[in-house]
Amino acid sequence: MLGEKLENVRKTAPLIHNITNYVTANDCANILLACGASPTMADDAAEVEEITALSGALNINIGTLNAMVTGMFLAGKRANALGRPVVLDPVGAGASRLRTDTARRLIEAIRFTVIRGNISEIKTLASGSGTTKGVDADAADAVTEETLETAVAFVKAFAGKTGAVAAVTGAIDLVSDAERTFVIRNGRPLMGCVTGTGCMLSAMTAAYLAANPECPLEAAAAAVCAMGVCGEIAQERLRPEEGNATYRNRLIDAVYHLDAKTLEGRARYEIR
Amino acid sequence: MLGEKLENVRKTAPLIHNITNYVTANDCANILLACGASPTMADDAAEVEEITALSGALNINIGTLNAMVTGMFLAGKRANALGRPVVLDPVGAGASRLRTDTARRLIEAIRFTVIRGNISEIKTLASGSGTTKGVDADAADAVTEETLETAVAFVKAFAGKTGAVAAVTGAIDLVSDAERTFVIRNGRPLMGCVTGTGCMLSAMTAAYLAANPECPLEAAAAAVCAMGVCGEIAQERLRPEEGNATYRNRLIDAVYHLDAKTLEGRARYEIR
Amino acid sequence: MLGEKLENVRKTAPLIHNITNYVTANDCANILLACGASPTMADDAAEVEEITALSGALNINIGTLNAMVTGMFLAGKRANALGRPVVLDPVGAGASRLRTDTARRLIEAIRFTVIRGNISEIKTLASGSGTTKGVDADAADAVTEETLETAVAFVKAFAGKTGAVAAVTGAIDLVSDAERTFVIRNGRPLMGCVTGTGCMLSAMTAAYLAANPECPLEAAAAAVCAMGVCGEIAQERLRPEEGNATYRNRLIDAVYHLDAKTLEGRARYEIR
Q1: Alpha-carbon distance B242 to nearest alpha carbon in chain A (angstroms)
Q2: How far apart are CA C26 and CA C83, in angstroms?
Q3: % chain A with pLDDT above 90
Q4: What does each C-alpha distance from C105 to A58, A82, C100, C111, C112 come to in angstroms?
Q5: Residue C131 above 80 pLDDT?
Q6: C165-179: per-residue pLDDT in tens?
Q7: What is the least distance, in Å, from the CA of B17 to any CA of chain C?
Q8: Rounded to an integer, what distance in angstroms lies between the CA atom of residue A79 and that of residue C265?
Q9: For an interface test with C, which of B9, B44, B230 has the most C Cβ atoms less than 10 Å from its Cβ?
Q10: What's the pLDDT band for C17 if we cut at 50, 70, 90?
Q11: Which subunits have 3 or more CB–CB pairs within 8 Å of chain A?
């Protein structure tokens, strides 16, 4: 099932429009190319609607907001009007009022297909206040085997409330559409030592949605599994003296080589 | 001939002013350092004229336009007034009116030494309308052995009309000054899986122009050959498990080590 | 002594707020993660004060100024009010009036804990005029064994005048608080072929300051030694065909693995 989602990306090579932060834009573009999609980054309000209209999906990431917000609303509304999938990555929601408010205003104005963030960011969006520490999740919020049941219920409720598939990633990843929740146990802690693994996943999720528009839950789950599996493969290939910079490259390289069979064979998930 | 152009970059270490997109700015800076030049990125309208005045050449890339356009005009005009080479990379021309119009207005206002793009972008600039798919060329436009004669005539005409050397890169690269056209058959398809190889080439072209101001056609052809040769060397060094992220590094590494002899020995071109 | 400074970063994992250029922001984020800190990049004037308030230190880098200046002043003043360390990296001061004036206005308005730049940038700030060539130091300014005594006196005077620890990096690095000066002889020339090694060092210095707030001189000296030692380790691991792109990754990888014992054993400095 997941493997087919991956193959559809390679077959259709969707163009993905990213309005995203300048910190990780290059890695987002390269991971989109690695998975078989084609990236375009365009944040000027004067062109975002046209670029979205050309694209198979839109990825909005609030990692650096300066002068990008107007374009986010325009592009998101156009994507909705055209029925194109839209991903929101609410980077740092909870860390500043600007981020929290921008994310909440986006959710009010735009129908998102997937909202992907860490647990602290999603809790902030659910409750209106948060304890996000910068762009990383607060340890107190972490999804663990002990807190799993509560976390699944929370993510389901959030998906139900927003109408979006919620993808909450961390040590355990949860992807839910309010009825079914994928509980995913792939990935490696070292991914947290590479800036932008979340941003890259959001971009790749947009590619999986564009190539599999009829099943956003499965498409998002496949993207999350693919990222986790590639994090594992990348770590297996890391030599002892290599660190987080080389790991970033090996992660994208693994996405470049990932095939349906490997994804199917290595994905570890249950549906609740 | 080409090797001398490369050596002149290493000898003169020109400072290159880039007004370029945030997606690939880092790679552009590192490839400039790799080829022996010195990069400076400055897009604030309040300083671009001074920075251009300090620089050996100017590279204008419209990959992300937000708040950068005013500076592009100011810097370009200053470069013209000072007789410094100027490169235009019309990234995504044809994908939005903003990009098409900005590129065309730049060409009207500024005398470019080289305009480097993919075939769809250049066709857009020639005809005023385009079918650019995001930032990648449309397959229908591709320069192949079958369409070569027509493509050479088109590129010559474009160079004649704009007064710039036209560098159209793809599976076959064409570099023309209206009279002579370099038809270059270096490079590897994998280069299309790395974001910004075009941007990097435009930056490197500016370095070659700065170091070889008396022969822009040969300088641009040498830069295009150098990029293609390095794409080949990088692929030869790629291990089976490595993908597009590592390839990017090996490409820049190859530029770092490229010498005149290797460039001369591996460049595959004819002049039409 | 230096090793303890490094360990304090890993123990406290400080959040570092960076208002920094888009060219090297990704590398700055990854080197902060490598040394054990947590990066946040936020330059929107509407949020910088809140982000600074959450952070252990603030790093202001003027590498690309477009639309970032207002936020720099707001964040810097907030950091001062809260007693948080603040680093200034005056990238390209001397190359344009905008850069020189912005750096000088920042120094007048904000109490910096450390000002880190190359010798030409610091001379520009000291004298009000400069000969900075783009973002690289002018060869005529270089700190060598011959000019060392004069350079130490200059750096001490600059530290005394500004009240900041001055960190002037180049072939020989000087870190001074007006009374004592660390003369550091680590590092490799190849570091100059990687864009943003200075930016990365400034970001890492902010992390060392946040983790060692009571001794800014020693913290800054430890960060400078760590960067130089990692430059050496990275070069030892570089294979003959590898160049500046891979060197960048090996440099960050080395920071990821650096421990107190290695830093203590390899740091080469004297105090004058």
Answers
A1: 5
A2: 27
A3: 93
A4: 40, 48, 9, 11, 12
A5: no
A6: 999 999 999 999 999
A7: 8
A8: 57
A9: B44
A10: very high
A11: B, C
Place of tokens 């950091």: C79
DSSP A82-145: HT--EEEE-TTBTTBHHHHHHHHHHHHHS--SEEEE-HHHHHHHHHS----BTTB--GGG---T
Nearest to A29 among B66, B96, B195 (CB): B195
**Comparing C-alpha atoms, which of A214, A86, C95 is closest to residue B41?**
C95
pLDDT for the residue numbered B185: 98
pLDDT of C26-67, one tens digit each?
999 999 999 999 999 999 999 999 999 999 999 999 999 999
A196 and C26 in contact by Cβ < 8 A?
yes
Instruction: Give the pairing type, strands B165-168 and A86-89.
Output: unpaired
The Cα B137–Cα A92 span in angstroms is 35
**Which residue matches tokens 């408010």?**
A101
Which chain B residues touch A248 with a CB distance below 8 Å? Answer: 245
**Beta-ladder partners of A174:** A168, A183
Q: Is the pLDDT of residue B91 over 70?
A: yes
CA distance B53 to chain C (A): 10
A252 part of contact set with chain C, CB < 8 Å: no
Strand, helix or coil at B268?
A: coil
- For B35, B81, B83, B127, B171, the CA distances from B166, given in Å and listed in that order, are 22, 21, 19, 15, 16
Question: Is any Cβ of chain B less than 8 angstroms from the Cβ of A249?
Answer: yes
| CA dihedral for A27, A29, A33, A36, sign (positive or negative) | positive
Report the C-alpha gap between A34 and A20 in whole angstroms. 18
Q: Flag if A50 and B244 touch (Cβ within 8 Å).
A: no
- Exposure of A191 by Cβ count < 10 A (0-12 exposed, 13-18 middle, 19+ buried)? buried
Phi, psi for residue A183 in degrees, rounded to 5: -105, 115
Quick count: other Cβ atoms within 10 Å of Cβ B145? 9
Dihedral sign of CA atoms C64, C68, C70, C71 in order: negative
Examine the predicted complex and report whether its ipTM is higher than 0.90. yes
Nearest to B125 by CA among B162, B150, B169, B84: B162
Residue carrying structure tokens 């890993």: C10
What sign does the dihedral A133-A139-A145-A150 (CA atoms) show?
Answer: negative
- Residue A247, token pair as written in the block: 């790991």
Residue type, B102: T
pLDDT tens string B190-221: 999 999 999 999 999 999 999 999 999 999 99
pTM above 0.95, yes or no: yes
For residue B47, list chain C residues with Cβ-Cβ distance below 8 A. Answer: 65, 95-99
**β-pairing verdict for A181-184 and A269-271:** antiparallel
